[in-house]
Amino acid sequence: MKILRYIFLFGGLLLFVLGCYAVYRTLKLDPIQPKITALSFQQKLADGRKQYHVRGCVKCHGISGLADGEKSYRLKASGYFITPLAMPALYLQGSSLSNIEYSLLYGVNTQLLPLAVQGKPSPMPRYTNLTDIEIKNISLYVRLLAGYNDDIENAPAKN
Predict the structure, then answer these.
(1) What CATH class is the domain 45-145?
(2) Do residues 34 and 53 make contact, with C-beta atoms less than 8 angstroms apart?
(3) Domain extents for the chain?
């Protein structure tokens, strides 16, 4: 009877150890799988620049953000205000990353425009087809056009 108790005790302990080992193996990362690394700041800017051109931002805001794109002249002649991205003081909804992201997602609020233009729809469309990453990268690129450096990781240390 005592031997039977030891057999069950040993068997239970063995099952417990094997179960723990099985859980350990399933949770352990496979060293062959590539690790996903975050994009560097320069890669984010490069993607933001690419999206800025592909999504048509350049058509109104221009290559260097001076509101001199091919469509901007016609829109300005119709009374629209095209924000020169190189001049953040003129951003109607603010120049922080979150403000720029908001402008990309929802367009520009026409109530912020001068009274002469308030009845017209905003020339800045909503970009509902952008991913969160594309929105962030475009916003970083727009801030670069405005002269900001949002590279916090590689910024010089403050004394």
Answers:
(1) mainly alpha
(2) no
(3) 45-145
